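Title: Prediction job returns without error message
Component: structure pipeline
Severity: low
Priority: P3
Assignee: unassigned

Description:
Job completed but the reporter wants confirmation the result is attached to the right record. Sequence as submitted:
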Amino acid sequence: MTNEDKLLRQQLTAFLRGGHAYDLFQDIVKDFPKDRINEKIPNSTYTPWRLLEHIRITQLDILNFVRDPAYKELKWPNDYWPAENKKGTYAQWNKSISYIQRDLAEFIKILNSPKTDLNKRIPHGSGQTFLREAILIIDHTSYHLGEFSILRDVMKTWGKRAK
C-alpha cells in the first residue's frame, strides 16, 4: 500500500466518522426526546425515527453490496424507508443508532484492509468501486444528518442548544 493510498483511506475514514463540516452522528441524535421520535414536522412525511431508520437501511445496503457477492438489490423507495405511517419504539430507535455505528465500523474495517482495492470494480456490481461506495455513504449520511439537524431545530429538541 502506497503512502498516497494510506492517506486516502485515512481521509475517507475521517469523513465517514464525520465531524468536519457538521456535528458527529452521535451528537446529532444524542438526547433526542423519546416521546417525539414519531412526530412529523409540518409539511413533511419525515419523523426523526423514519429518517434515522432510512440512514441505517441505506448504509447497511451499501455495506452488504461491497461484502456480499450474492447481494440482492433493494427496491427504491419502499425498501429504503419505513412505511410513512409506521412508528418506531424507543428500543428500535436505540437499536438503529447502535446498528448504524456497528455497520459503519465494519465498513471502515473493510476500507482499511490492505486486501481492499479502492479503485477495482466490485465484481457483482455494474461498474461501482469501493471508493465510490465510501463516498456514497459519506454523501448520503451527511445529507440526511443535515436534515436531521434542521428537523431538530424545527422541533426545538436541541435542549440547551436550541434557540
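Comment from assignee: result matches the submitted record. The mean pLDDT is 95.
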